[in-house]
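Batch manifest, entry 17 of 40.
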Amino acid sequence: MAIVYDTFQREAPQRLALLHADTPTRVLAWRDGQSVSAAQFLAHVRQAAATLPGAGAAVNLCEDRYAFLVAFCAIALRGQTNLLPSSRAPQAVDEVMAAHPGCYALGELALDPAPTGYHRLPALTALPCDDEAEGWPQIPAGQVVAIGYTSGSTGTPSANLKTWRSFHASNAGNLAMLRAVVGERFSVVATVPPQHMYGMEMSVLLPLLGGVGVHAGRPFFPADVAAALADLPAPRVLVTTPVHLRALVESGIVLPPLAAMVSATAPMPPELAQAAEERFGAPLQEVFGSTETCVFASRRTTQEDDWSLYPDVQLHPQPDGTQVEAPQLDAPRLLADIVSLSADGRRFRLRGRQADMLEIAGKRASLGDLTRRLLAIPGVRDGVVFQLDDGDALGVHRIAALAVAPELDEHAILDTLRRAIDPVFLPRPLLRVAALPRNETGKLPRAALLEVLARHHSHS
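Output type: C-alpha cells
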C-alpha cells in the first residue's frame, strides 16, 4: 500500500514555524560541554538540507540527539518525511525502507554494514549564523513530517503519520503540563531515543517548539545520567522510563538537583515512584499516550490514581477500548485501553487493555495485574506475564512468564504466585532468565518474548 505523504491538503493553506526562537541566541542544546544557540542550529539545518538526496522520505538513524534534531529539521525543510522505525535493528530498518520505495537512510555515523542508500550528515562544526538575513523558516502545517512505528509489544509494528500541525498541538499540551510543574524555562536530559514517539515529544519537539534546551546525549548508565545533568543549568527535567529509573534508584548515585522527572513507556509502580521522589527530591510526572495519539494525559503517581486529561481532550469509553479526541488528532482514534471516567469527564482511571483481559473457566484476570503480582515477589528483579498464540481444543490460550530472579528457582516463584492468584492463571511455562528482551525504551516486543520461549524449547 503506497503512503500518501500530503494527506491533509484539504486544509486551508497554512504554514507553521519550524523553530520557536524568541531570540536567536537562546540555547537549544548542549553538546560536548558547549551550548548551541538557535541561530547556530538553524545554520546546521540549512547546511544539512542542502546535501540531502531528492526523495519523499528518509529513515532518521541519528544516535546523537543534536544530530537527530538537525536531520529531522533538514528532512522536513526539504519537504520530506522522517521515517522512525520501532528500533534501529537492521531488519526493522529494512522493513520500513521496503514499505517506502525510493527513500534513503540518514545518520551521523559511518555504519558498517549500512542500509541501502545510506547518506551521512555533514560534520556539525561551527558555522556563521546567517539566518537573520534569510528569516526563520516555516513549513506547511499539513506536511507529514514523521511516520512513527509502534513498538510491536502487542504484535506487528504499525505506521502512524504525524503532520507538523499535529506536532505543534501535542507539544502545547506537554509544555503546559511541565511549565505548571517547573516554571517557564527548564532544560531536559532524556534516556530515551528520539526515534520513539515519547522521546520525540519530550526531547525533540520541546526544544524545537517550546524554547527548551536539551542535552545531546542519551545517557544509559547512572553515572552517565548524572554527568549529563551536570552539563545543564537548573531547573533540570529528567525524561526517562521505569526501567531506567529503577536502575538510578538502586545505584545509590547522587544526581544534580532536579526540578521534575517524567516517565512513560510502561506502568510506573507506585513504590518505585515514591522511592524516586524521596531519593532525588523532585516530583515524578507520569504521562499517558501512544504512538497513535501522542501524550494526552498525566498524573503525579505518588499522589494520584487518576489521570488528568490535557485541555480539549475527550475520552469516550467503548466496549472494546476507548475513543480519543485530541487537538493533535484529525479524527478520533480507538485505543485498546479500557478506562472509567470521572463524573466531570476530565479524569480517568485505567482498568486495563482489551488484549490483556483473560477469561478462563468463567474467571477473569488481566495480564497487567498478573505481571504486577510477579514483580511483587521478593527476589524477582524483573518479569512479565503474557499469553501465547496457541489455544487448546476449547480455544483457551496458555499463559507464560519470564522472570529475572537470580536467587530463586521456578518452583519457588510459582509457589509464591499460587498464594496470590487463582490457580487457573498460573503461568506455565514460567522461565527464569538472565534478562528480559527489552528494547531501547524498556518495552517488551511480543516477538522477542516468543523468541526467548522458542530458544528454551529448542534447548530443552
